[in-house]
Amino acid sequence: MSEADEKYMDEYDKYNIEQDKYENHAHSGKGRTKKEAAQHHYEDPSGHTRKAMQKLMNNAHKHTEKHSSRDNK
């Protein structure tokens, strides 16, 4: 868009022209383009650490609940 065009446009015209920027597409993440998403994706060499850690924490929590309820009876 040239400067000559911009002086006749308001914020709504610019929004209508650039509206694909504001749409939320599946798997794009935070309104990023595919290129931006690829640039900000860092692969964890050890795998799914967050998922494994959550599973261990949930297991420990259930284990302590199970034993504490048995002791209270």
From TrEMBL:
Pfam families for the chain: Phospho_p8 (PF10195)
Region (Disordered) residue spans: 17-73
Domain of life: Eukaryota
GO cellular component, one term: nucleus
GO biological process: negative regulation of cell cycle; negative regulation of cell population proliferation; regulation of transcription by RNA polymerase II
Stretches with biased composition (Basic and acidic residues): 17-26, 34-47
Classification via PANTHER family: NUCLEAR PROTEIN 1 AND 2 (PTHR17149), RH17958P (PTHR17149:SF4)
Protein name: Nuclear protein 1
Organism: Arion vulgaris
